[in-house]
Amino acid sequence: MKVLLGLGAMHDHDCVEIGSLGAQGDGVVSCDGEQRFVPGALPGERWCLDEDGPHRLSASDDRQNPVCHHFPECGGCVAQHMSPELYAKWKVDALTTAFAHRGIDVHPEPLRSVGSGARRRTTFSFRGTGKNFVFGYHRRASHMLVEISECPVLQDDISAQLSSLRTIASYVAVDGKEGRMVVTVLDHGLDVALTVPGAKPSQNERSELSKRATAIDAVLLTLNGDPIVEAKPPALSINGARVAPPATAFLQAAPEAEQWIADVILEAMNRSKKAVDLFCGVGTFTFPLAKRALVTAYDGDASAIASLTEAAKSNQGFKPITAQQRDLFRDPLSPRELRAFDAAVINPPRAGAAEQCERLAKSALKTIVMVACNPATLARDARILLDGDFKLTRLIPIDQFVYSAHLESVAVFQRVAASKR
User: Fold this and answer.
1) Which phi and psi (to 5°) does residue 99 adopt?
2) Among candidates 126, 137, 225, which has minimal Cα distance to 170?
């Protein structure tokens, strides 16, 4: 049994030594046959657990000062108090532990980290009106919002505009409703997408929104999908191609990480002639692949497929790309359909893609590269491929969600030579 110890949750007067770190960054201790999770605790530290909440009695040599004054109140980060060495070990251990739970012994390559200031997209939340207006992120495991004035993980293009973004959000806030603002750094400015149930700004407010958006070089500002500002066509460079991504289309969190992943994919598929890109989004890995191979790309997001299709027509220097909308959860590609390809890239959401992997395992594909942001579902899906006569040849952890419990990983699978399909 696992028990998360938060303020006001204690009923003991135990002094304990923290044994390890959990997957969410909490200190772990075993008490009376239960695993207890202590937020903010590090291995080797002694903590007292009582009715007033856990409090630290000793500090680990691996404890460091947070880089943001909102930590740990803001729930976006869980690991700013860890030394770089402990932090890297914690991230990689999360990956190896997930695979061990599936009976797979792995030896990942060293962690690659983008560092602070690399995130090109974030989602802010806001609530209230007037003096009660709050703009920021949620507390951990809570609906409460934390007002923020800095966020070191974001690119400067976003973090330098926090005050202005807050003001923009305040013009469309509806009392009693929580709004969301997705901000993305594009090639020539920001894409700001607001979602606020029931928001109906007046003409004066829309005019003010337009002025504020122009002042921060926003190329696009939308409210519930309705464009308020369209200064320039949205454009994002992806491996030599220019794409106009929909405001909420999936993108890799950091450009540097995106390039690392693309390099691994190209190295693994250097002899592929025909490749399939599953859960392709706007073509993050479609275009790198299309420099060498014919590519057919699938995704369930119609707007993403439309953007990819248009980009495939307008960009030069790529082999033919075919993009099709398809719900790969309800209708995964069959082994028969996969006969048209010799390699596959699959980049599913956090839930993974077990049913599609079942069909990949039964296919005649020679190479599969899986990109995943959830070690647990990656390990589950890897087990399916390994049981289908694939061999895991590379496993690369990529830390593009800095200070969070999330971890991107790239796994390369090659068909066992003796297998016949």
Assistant:
1) -70, -35
2) 126
Residue 243 main-chain phi, psi, to 5 deg: -120, 145
- What residues contact 217, with CB distance under 8 A and at least 6 apart? 188, 189, 190, 231
Contact 288, 265 (CB under 8 A): yes
pLDDT for 11: 45
From CA 243, how far away is CA 237, in angstroms rounded?
6
Going by C-alpha positions, the residue among 231, 187, 189, 234 that lies closest to residue 210 is 231
- Which residue type does 286 have? T
235 DSSP 8-state letter: -
Give domain limits for the chain: 2-63, 93-114+251-415, 121-230
Q: Which CATH architecture has domain 2-63?
A: Beta Barrel (2.40)
Kindly report, residue by residue over 53-95, the tens digit of the pLDDT: 899 999 999 999 999 999 999 999 999 999 999 999 999 999 9
pLDDT, tens only, 107-131:
999 999 999 999 999 999 999 988 8
Report CA dihedral (110, 271, 356, 392) to the nearest 10 degrees: -40
Class of the domain covering 93-114+251-415: alpha beta
Q: Note whether 72 and 40 are within 8 A (CB).
A: yes
DSSP conformational letter for 293:
S
pLDDT at 419: 53
Under CATH, which architecture does the 121-230 domain have? Beta Barrel (2.40)
R_g over Cα of the chain = 23
Is position 373 annotated as part of the catalytic site?
yes
How many C-beta atoms lie closer than 10 Å to residue 330's C-beta? 8
The segments of the chain whose pLDDT lies below 70 read: 1-13, 418-421
Burial class (CB in 10 A: 0-12, 13-18, 19+), 200: exposed
∠417-273-415 over CA atoms, to 5°?
A: 20
Residue 207's Cα: distance from chain center in Å? 34
Task: Please indicate whether the domains covering 2-63 and 121-230 agree at the CATH topology level.
Answer: yes
Across 74-84, b (16+ Cβ under 10 Å) vs e yields bbbbbbbbbee
Q: How far apart are alpha carbons 281 and 121 in whole angstroms? A: 15
Pick the catalytic residue from 74, 280, 357, 373: 373
Residue type for position 128: G
